[in-house]
Amino acid sequence: MIRLGLAILLLALGAAAPAQAATCGGDFQSFVASISREAAAQGISQGVIAQALGGVTQDQAVLSFDRRQRGTFNKSFEQYVSTRVGPGRIKTGQAMLIRHASLLSRIERQFGVPPQILVAIWGLETDYGAGDMGKLPVFRVLATMAHDCRRTELFQGELLAALQIVQRGDLGMRDMIGAYAGELGQTQFLPSSYIKYGVDYDGNGHVDLRHSVPDVLASTANLLKTAGWRAGGSYQEGSANFEAMREWNRATIYRKTIGYFADRLAGGN
């Protein structure tokens, strides 16, 4: 779903820009060479740079998709939620609450975010990890978007963050597959959010948001807590927690859908 919501989120998300941004537009390979030098200056190894950016090409389909995203949320809440929260997704979500009850309880104690909110986000984004996490090479996507002059500093920051994910050993190159803005994993983190909020909750030394359910759910909770989530508080529209979810998605209709879904998972009316 982040393919829909992220276009709005990206307009305001404060990803760290490179200290000396590469010049957008112009020859694409010259741009790649420039951003590669910036990555090396930030400590990314030549091996990682070569694997990620060697031979990378522009993807015009990504640019076309990005331009179509304006005004995605043009339905009423009732229309939108009816397409996102159905009986099957609720039933599976309730099963996930039971299956991961111990993990979710531990996360709630540490981060203050209730299980139903985390499972709602998880379900909406990728059907609890069983759905579409994206099929596009992340480095091709991010290099394409960074070269485009509309939001070059934002996406240069995302590209450098994606390189850092590989540099740290969190994901290998074959797992750097995502959606149309470079979102990764079961709850669709931008690379900069992956670096900023990712938690190694299974204790294996890596933040793996593609394969590790503990890492996925704890990292999502950490994002919300860092954004100001208040334990035990309401998450309905107008509350502090509803505002905290702006860090997840700035669109009001999407945040209302998270709350609605969470209530259905928890057995509310």
Automatic annotation (TrEMBL):
SUPFAM superfamilies: Lysozyme-like. Residues 28-235 form the Transglycosylase SLT domain. Residues 1-21 form the signal peptide. One of its GO terms (biological process) is peptidoglycan catabolic process. InterPro entries: Lysozyme-like_dom_sf, MltB-like, MltB_2, SLT_2. CDD domains: Slt35-like (cd13399). GO terms for molecular function: peptidoglycan lytic transglycosylase activity. It comes from the Bacteria. It holds the Pfam family SLT_2. Keywords: Signal. This is Lytic murein transglycosylase. It comes from Rhodopseudomonas rhenobacensis.
